[in-house]
Amino acid sequence: MKAVIKLAFRIVIDQNSTMTWDQYIFEDTYFEYKIQHQVFDDKENPVKNYWELLSKNPHAERIPFIVSASAVNYVSQLNGVIKSLPDVLGTTFFPIENFKLDLISSNIEDPSKHKIGLTFYTPALLLIDSIDNKYVLSKDLENKNGFETFMFAFHPQVAISYYQPN
After folding, report:
1. pLDDT tens digits, residue range 5-35?
2. What pLDDT is stored for residue 36 in this prediction?
């Protein structure tokens, strides 16, 4: 079954998020969103929410990318791993090499409407097999004399985002 894959893990952050890290990201992305909303909004006929803005100004599709800059320092604090997703032994954590922010909704006057998604992507991994609802993976993409492996259980917020059969 061997294939090179990348996994993606997505979290949603909104005003009700309870982790301190999430709250900081919420506050900073909402602040940045309000600035960017003003830049892309029509001065004569302003709108309040992101989807209205996007329908009036297609260039507003750049806002999520611009807003993602306000989350970069927080993501860098993770040091390349999501520690809340350990392997089945609890020794290897979900490795990440990059992320993407998507803007689910926002409103310049109502912070309760601000909601973002953060999707984290792993580096390329070798998928060797799946056993009992677990991925058998290796960071080593070249077959030498066998593979050092680790196993991640299937998770509802983890998907295969890239697949290349070997």
Report:
1. 999 999 999 999 999 999 999 999 999 999 9
2. 97
Tens digit of each residue's pLDDT (9 = 90 or more) over 118-139? 999 999 999 999 999 999 999 9
Prediction pTM value: 0.92
Distance, CA of 149 to CA of 156 (rounded, Å): 22
Q: Considering only the C-alpha atoms of the chain, give the largest distance between any 2 of them, rounded to a whole number of Å.
A: 68
Token pair for residue 145?
């004399």
DSSP string, the chain: --EEEEEEEEEEEETT--SHHHHHHHHHHHHHHHHHHHHHS-SSS--SBHHHHHHH-GGGGGHHHHHHTTTHHHHHTTTTEEEEEE-TTSSSEEE-SEEEEEEEE-BTT-GGG-EEEEEEE---EEEEEE-SSEEEEES--S-SSS---EEEE--TTEEEEEEEE-
- The answer, yes or no, to whether residue 146 has pLDDT greater than 90, is no
Residue at token pair 């004569």: 44
Instruction: Give yes or no for a contact between 97 and 33, defined as CB atoms under 8 angstroms apart.
Output: no
User: What tokens appear for 127 in the block?
Assistant: 């998928």
